[in-house]
Design goal:
Rossmann fold, 3 domains, four-stranded parallel β-sheet, 15 helices
């Protein structure tokens, strides 16, 4: 297997520290609102990578954190009047349900930031003791110039790093690039007791501590979106290396590209986003979203469009028809499909293999490979509900019976009316020698 390593800027053979146990950590959501489609791209990318790793290695531990303490969450609580724990519990559940609809399996570990405050305080104390961090005006800051090779991951020079971090000018900072490890909390903000007063951790700190506590000082793969390379992942490396005597935080750094809309990065700040939750409520199939998100190579930008999802749905329709009633196992996955994925998760090539299997009528191989890709898992693909306003299955079946009775009585006007009414609601009837079957558009 080969992976592009952001740290070395090249594609490398993947050799885990322990060939019997691969460890991977991916930065997860800040749970204060619905996840947009761009947030879903790393979920499906690293879900697919986890599936491939599990196929090739005897044991894989995949962790994805939940950030449940953050200024955005505090702001949401103040604006809505909802308790912070109620907000984070609600949106964690919705996030996992929505990602589950894309056939993304739950990671093995889902650590929550607020459960690791003692570990964060301990790491800060270590960094202070070693001279990498200092206390100033109720804050604790990491002193960037104290670390050799800071900026190695992003490859930025000092001026670019300061501009890219959009640093807050603060009189208590020794250097403009220094970043917060701990900050004071007002009485109306959540906080924890610490040696530096009541406060809360900086965002960058949580991942370093959760990785150390759940997976160890050095892991095999650390993943996330391209936007996390700087400053988040750069700061994770700084904290962990300095706390652990120079030990690497991760051997391979893997980052997915942006999701764009008309060439611009999809983001909440630009307002050019649509949430996964909205799409699912409209009746868009989760597997169609997944296939669309995997249609481009993970490191390349992917322009989101409803046409792309519609094309993915049509392709899935064809594959579902071909594999109806087919049983397949992992042993049926063709080697050229696996080789495509092993080549830095080359999903366009893997999808081309799936299309070729469909054309050649190799349905068992198609089913097995698509299953590993996270597709063709729905037994009711053609009849599953298509949105909040979609006609219920029981009503469709009732109308089919009513139409059959009308045809039996040679009341073809009523029979045609029922067919047309169902068609208007996205239900297509198919008459055959064994009766009438139906599917949604």
């Amino acid at each position: 297997m080969k992976l592009f390593n952001t740290l070395t800027k090249k594609k490398e053979d993947f050799v885990p520290l322990d060939p019997h146990h691969v460890k991977m950590y991916v930065c997860g959501p800040t749970v204060y609102n619905y996840a947009h489609v761009g947030n879903a791209r790393p979920v499906v990318v690293f879900d697919l990578l986890a599936r491939l790793l599990r196929h090739d290695f005897p044991k894989v531990t995949y962790a994805r954190n939940i950030t449940d303490i953050d200024d955005k969450i505090i702001t949401a609580s103040q604006e809505t009047g909802e308790d912070i724990s109620a907000i984070t519990t609600k949106y964690t559940r919705i996030y996992e349900e929505d990602m589950g609809a894309l056939n993304a399996e739950l990671p093995d570990l889902r650590p929550r930031a607020t459960d690791y405050i003692p570990q964060m305080i301990a790491m800060i104390e270590t960094l202070i003791d070693k001279g990498y961090a200092y206390v100033a005006d109720g804050h604790v800051l990491f002193h960037v110039p104290s670390m050799e090779n800071y900026g190695e991951l992003s490859g930025r020079n000092r001026e670019e790093m300061i501009a890219g971090a959009r640093v807050e000018v603060a009189p208590y900072k020794k250097d403009a690039s220094d970043f917060v490890l701990w900050k004071p909390s007002r009485a109306d903000q959540p906080g924890w007791d610490s040696p530096w007063g009541r406060g809360r951790p900086g965002w960058h700190l949580e991942c370093s501590c959760m990785i150390e506590d759940t997976l160890g000082e050095t892991i095999d793969i650390h993943g996330g979106g391209l936007d996390l390379i700087f400053p988040h992942h750069e700061n994770e490396i700084a904290q962990s290396r300095c706390a652990h005597g120079g030990a690497a935080l991760a051997r391979y750094w893997v980052h997915n590209g942006y999701l764009t809309v008309e060439g611009e990065k999809m983001s909440k700040s630009l307002g050019n986003f649509i949430t996964v939750h909205e799409l699912l409520e409209e009746g868009v199939r989760g597997e169609a979203i997944r296939l669309a998100l995997l249609s481009a190579h993970y490191r390349q930008p992917l322009d989101f469009s409803r046409d792309g999802i519609d094309q993915a749905k049509k392709q899935l329709d064809r594959w579902y028809r071909l594999t109806e009633g087919v049983e397949a196992t992992e042993e049926d996955i063709p080697e050229d499909f696996l080789e495509a994925l092993r080549d830095d998760l080359n999903t366009p090539k893997a999808i081309a293999v799936l299309s070729a299997l469909a054309r050649e009528g190799k349905v068992k191989e198609l089913k097995a490979a698509a299953n590993m890709f996270g597709l063709l898992h729905q037994d009711d693909w053609f009849t599953m509900a298509g949105g909040e306003d979609a006609i219920e299955e029981v009503e469709v079946n009732r109308l089919i019976e009513e139409r059959a009775e009308a045809k039996k009585n040679k009341d073809f006007v009523t029979a045609d009316r029922i067919r047309d009414e169902l068609a208007a609601q996205g239900v297509i009837l198919k008459d055959g020698p064994d009766g009438t079957t139906w599917e949604r558009k």
